[in-house]
Write a structure and sequence with these properties.
The protein has 223 residues and is α/β, with parallel strands linked by helices. The chain is 39% helix and 12% strand. It contains eight helices and seven strands; from the N terminus they run βαββαββαβαβαααα. It has a three-stranded parallel β-sheet, sandwiched between helices. It has a two-stranded parallel ribbon with strand order 3-5.
């Protein structure tokens, strides 16, 4: 089971991006995710079953918490800073709209069941970033009676697409159960309990952690 990413689609104005959509990666991350897909597919035969999952970026609480992903970032700012910083806002970013529990359920499903080889999108709600911010703002008002300001700033990240996950639902009868709203509430619950402290430190960001360990990474001989 190969965990690719929906961001391999890059930017698309198609109303529904399905698995047969051209891969148009725009960063090194999604470029190499895309290049790895055919490597797996070349080995798939009657004796070796393989599948590529293109998941939306995970949101919600995890023991290995990340605050470098859209839903988690916005919730962190709202709870701990009293405002939400939105870069752009009009991008449709389904890569932030799969709850961690649903992603675990996707992998478990493919481990336990027979499946047709191929590529499968795995995302639930297609929401614009500004809509997610408004959702968090509303929950902060409901739960804490706090009015959260949404600050709009320019974005250098153009990724925008509306993915379609009907294939995994219709062909394999998989059902998504958790929504972005659930992920936001999960995070707020953990903040309330005091389980998420120093949430703006670099350790919560994959890229920041990798940069911090640059010398360690450069010690490997990749030639």
């Amino acid at each position: 089971i190969y965990a690719s990413t929906c961001s391999v689609y890059g930017v698309s104005d198609q109303p529904e991006v399905k698995e047969d959509h051209p891969l148009l990666p725009i960063t090194d991350y999604n470029k190499f995710k895309a290049l790895c897909e055919p490597i797996l597919n070349n080995y798939v035969d009657e004796n070796f079953h393989g599948v590529t999952i293109r998941p939306a970026t995970v949101c919600g609480y995890s023991e290995k918490m990340r605050f470098d992903l859209t839903v988690n970032i916005l919730t962190n700012f709202a709870f701990n800073k009293g405002f939400i910083k939105v870069f752009g806002g009009q991008q449709k970013r389904p890569n932030c709209n799969i709850h961690i529990m649903d992603l675990c359920r996707v992998f478990y499903f493919f481990l336990k069941n027979d499946f047709n080889p191929g590529n499968y999108n795995a995302g639930f709600e297609n929401l614009k970033i500004i809509d997610i911010a408004e959702m968090i703002k509303s929950l902060m008002k409901t739960r804490y009676s706090k009015d959260i300001e949404i600050k709009i700033e320019a974005s250098s990240d153009p990724r925008s697409y509306h993915i379609n996950s009907d294939k995994i639902k219709n062909l394999l009868n998989f059902e998504f159960k958790y929504k972005v709203n659930d992920a936001i509430n999960d995070l707020l619950n953990e903040f309330d309990k005091g389980n998420l402290k120093d949430s703006f430190e670099e350790k919560w960001s994959n890229i920041s952690t990798l940069k911090k360990n640059k010398n360690f990474l450069e010690s490997f001989d990749l030639n």
